[in-house]
Give the backbone structure.
Amino acid sequence: MFIEKFLEVLNHEGVVSIVTCANNEAHVSNTWNSYLVIAEENKILIPAAAMLKTEENININGNVKLTLGSKEVMGYKYMGTGFLLEGTAKFLKEGEHFEMMRKKFSFLTRVLEITVTSCKQTL
């Protein structure tokens, strides 16, 4: 599912925006490219310490959108590329993925697991 250009972006630091929506109100939280871990062909794991409103929204509506990019990766014609991802999300508080992520990111209290259904290059 994830093309080579997307994986290249993850190797360069940049901001990731996570958009959730519940009760007709969108909410955006942020993290860093370097915190995203590809778990399976279509799953991304993100360490979560706060993200309380994000979790509240996901408990109501599991659909999420993420944007991320890097100005250091060649896009279509110029330096800089970005992606829009869509999928569904849930928070993990135990299990194999939680334990693996806890070893990498000791600060986490939960893991945001996103099952990606769409990954489109936007820049």
In short: The chain has one domain: 4-121. The chain has three helices and seven strands. Residues 28 and 90 are 16 Å apart (CA to CA).
